[in-house]
Specification:
Order of helices and strands: EEHEEHEEEEEEEEHEEHEHEEHEHE
Radius of gyration: 22 Å
Number of domains: 3
Number of strands: 19
Number of helices: 7
Distance between the termini: 46 Å
CATH superfamily of the largest domain: Nucleotide-binding domain of ferredoxin-NADP reductase (FNR) module
Strand order of the largest sheet: 11-10-13-8-9-12
Structural class: alpha/beta
CATH topology of the largest domain: Rossmann fold
Largest sheet: 6 strands, antiparallel
Bound molecules: FE2/S2 (inorganic) cluster
């Protein structure tokens, strides 16, 4: 049996399946409600049941008191609808609506998909979840007090582990550490989520994604989120790198394309050697977009990676292809000497 859930004041409606919490069914419907631990401990998901009946699952008394329950409050992460219900809740509409936290995490797994790229899988304590918008980043807090910013490469629906893509930069203290001595099961601390690089879901415009190098990380999160939500906007993903080996998750991008008729993947390589036997596009990644699109006035562009690439894309698309200034979204990765270093 499924129950219909109506949110107020937005008026959004969706069905909750048997055995699904109110929060789970809202997330499956692509709606973002506030949450923290997702197991009845923190109270971040608390809202009001305006009409209908819910069953309150296991939770900490401190997160929802008996008085609150009697007054119609519920923790949506562990409450199950028993009838059609109307809930009063403030939906998360942008990154600004999400609390920024400082949390510990364990490095559960380290993979090296390329010689100079490490993928870190971070596990939060069992009582914590990080709410974020796909494409946002976190700051890893180092022991010397410095911060290193890394984009989240996983989508929010796939949050058992937070995924970071770390490129080895010679002399970069954190990346040197990751490549020389970081061990699995180590504990890190981070602050986040941060940033405004996320998919504007209120638009129906077709999308061009541009990534250079590990600028792939937040694009991966955004694309996986969009596909999970059943987004039917046209998406063209350009991934630029010096050499084919730098396209370190090439097969994943090919798989997106094979499984989604609305997504096209265009890898672009600038310095292929004869031994690479590269058959694909060559040159700079933003130039490939300029060759393919004469008018971007009806598009949104999301660009991430080296500042020179992001800037070249911004200038050329807005100046020569009519891309509206406010339809260009970017996250540039700066190196350690800059204020906000990124992967
Ligand atoms: S998200 Fe923490 S109590 Fe529901």
């Amino acid at each position: 049996m499924s129950c219909q859930v109506t949110l107020t004041p937005s008026g959004h409606q969706f069905n909750a399946k048997e055995g699904e919490t109110l929060l789970e069914s809202a997330m499956r419907a692509g709606l973002s409600l506030p949450y923290g631990c997702r197991n009845g401990a923190c109270g971040a998901c608390k809202g009001t049941v305006v009409s209908g009946q819910v069953r309150h699952g296991d939770h900490q008394p401190s997160a929802l008191t008996d008085e609150e329950q009697a007054a119609g409050k519920a923790l949506f992460c562990c409450a199950y609808p028993e009838t059609d219900v109307t809930l009063e809740v403030r939906e998360v509409l942008s990154g600004k609506d999400i609390p920024v936290k400082t949390l510990p995490c364990r490095v559960q797994k380290i993979e090296k998909p390329a010689d100079d790229v490490a993928v870190l899988f971070l596990k939060l304590p069992a009582t914590e979840r990080l709410q974020f918008m796909a494409g946002q980043y976190i700051d890893v807090l180092m022991k010397d007090g410095k911060r290193r910013s890394f984009s989240l490469a996983n989508a929010p629906h796939d949050d058992e582990f937070l995924q970071l893509h770390v490129r080895h930069v010679a002399g970069g203290s954190f990346s040197d550490y990751v490549f020389s001595s970081m061990k699995e099961r180590e504990i890190l601390r981070f602050n986040g989520p941060l940033g405004t690089f996320y998919l504007r879901e209120d638009s129906t415009k077709p999308i061009i994604f541009i990534a250079s190098g590990t600028g792939f990380a937040p694009i991966k999160g955004i694309v996986e989120h969009a596909l999970h939500e059943g987004c039917d906007r046209q998406m063209v993903f350009y991934w630029g790198a010096r050499q084919p080996k730098d396209l370190y998750m090439f097969d994943l991008a090919l798989k997106w394309q094979a499984e989604n008729p609305n997504l096209t993947f265009i890898p672009v390589v600038s310095d292929a050697t004869p031994e690479d036997n590269w058959q694909g596009r060559t040159g700079f990644v933003h130039e490939a977009v300029l060759e393919d699109f004469k008018d971007l006035s009806g598009y949104q562009v999301y660009a991430c990676g080296a500042p020179v690439v992001v800037e070249a894309a911004h200038t050329s698309f807005t100046k020569t292809r009519n891309l509206p200034e406010d339809e260009f979204f970017s996250d540039a990765f700066f190196l350690a000497k800059d204020l906000k270093p990124k992967a």
